[in-house]
Design goal:
Blueprint (H helix, E strand, L loop, with lengths): L1 H9 L3 E7 L9 E6 L3 H17 L5 E3 L6 E5 L3 E6 L1 H7 L1 H5 L6 E3 L13 H6 L3 H13 L1
Amino acid sequence: VGLIEASLADHKAEDLVAIDLAGKTDYADAMVIASGQSARHVGALADHLVAALKGAGLRPSVEGATQCDWVLIDAGDVVVHLFRPEVRAFYNLEKMWGLPGVPARPVGSTAGAMTATSSPAVASRAGSSVASTAQGVMAVAR
């Protein structure tokens, strides 16, 4: 999570939140959520984060990078969601995951995260359980 938070903060992601999922899901131990100022900014955050993760020897999976409204990055034990602000407000993942026993913590005043995709159709094309969960999150959030 430290590498992810540092990369996103270095590239001016906004409203970075890390949520501890340990023992709550099978697919990840943590979720990082952040916003970019525009689709271009979200795409740049995703590109820089993927490069940093690959530099650390990981093989991240990315969904939603073509439109950059919502980009999901599966970094193994950490799932990163990057949003444009209005898309983030619509899906409100923090509220859904901010259940008792799942502490959400803001990480500084500005930061960012990566994520899946803005459409359930794109999420359903992904082959991982993370994308399936992201699709479920979208359905629940609507």
